[in-house]
Amino acid sequence: MPRAAPSTPPALRCPCGAARPYAHCCGVWHSGPQALQAPDAEALMRSRYSAYVLGLSDYLLETWHPSTRPTSLDADPPGLRWLGLDVRAATTTDTDHATVEFVARSKLGGRAQRMHEISRFVREDGRWYYLDALGGG
Q1: Of 51, 65, 73, 109, which is most buried with the most CB atoms under 10 A?
Q2: Residue ranges of the domains in the chain?
């Protein structure tokens, strides 16, 4: 179901780190006729990172596989700043399974944090979903 994208200037660089404006990158997956239809696991992972940055919890839940989806997400702690995303590897296992290794950096209360994860994705009925995390380094 299409939803309104957050109010961001069209030329604003996408939070996922791609060298494209948000409106032509993750914004396409967050709203409009192609909402929720990222073409591959890496695009979905990038759009989910951007959704965390922009506080789009509905999008995060809708792109989480029903078998592992939580009932709700906690709000980010006050003062959390997302600093960047580094996609280390995107591997397609077969036509319906993939993994994406990434590092997401943030800062809270003056303290830098990094989350290193290898995420699993599954495609069902032509649509990619985040499944779970295998871990990281």
Answers
A1: 51
A2: 22-135
What does DSSP assign to residue 120?
E
Instruction: For residue 128, give the 3-state DSSP assignment.
Output: strand
**Helix or strand holding residue 26 (H, E):** helix 26-30
Q: What is the pLDDT of residue 37?
A: 87
pLDDT in tens, 8-58: 555 689 999 998 999 999 999 998 667 778 999 999 999 999 999 999 999
Give residue 31's pLDDT.
87
Q: Which of 131, 78, 72 is nearest to 107 (CA)?
A: 78
Tell me, what DSSP letter sits at residue 12? S
Burial (0-12, 13-18, 19+ Cβ within 10 Å), 76: middle
Q: Which fold has domain 22-135?
A: Nuclear Transport Factor 2; Chain: A, (3.10.450)
